[in-house]
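Supplementary Note 3. Input sequence used for the single-chain structure prediction.
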Amino acid sequence: MTALCSELLSALAGKTLVTAESCTGGGIGAALTGVPGSSSVYKGGIISYTNWVKEHFLRVDRKLLDTVGAVSAPVAEAMAKGARETMEADIAVSVTGLAGPTGDDFGNPVGTVFIGYSDEEKTLSREYHFPGSREQVRAAAVEAAVRLALEMQQQ
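The predicted structure, written as discrete structure tokens, is reproduced below.
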């Protein structure tokens, strides 16, 4: 994971990155800050474990949370865009999902994760379904988020 984070940070030289994390609870930030010199790119993150934080700090529309639920593509995108704008960064990555032990009221099973990405030109998300324990889902989501951000830099 350290090598992957190093590769992302190198690809982002001269730019700034922030994170908005829910189910990963700061895991992306921890992985990135494990790399010496990461502060030249990584500004920080918001752990938005509740809808209240998503709404009040990441500017996610409450109606969106009520109609499609926190674990959804539109919310992952709104989280990424809100983080990028709130923390005045070039790029943001967000994660929202269900690591367990149960699914949600919108029919999403455990292991469902949406990862968002936002820069000045585009905001997008991807849906994932990770198998395994709570910790395995969280670890897979952290890795997928870093890989998505790296992929976006290589385009």
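Residues 134-153 form the longest helix (20 residues). DSSP finds six helices and five strands in the chain.
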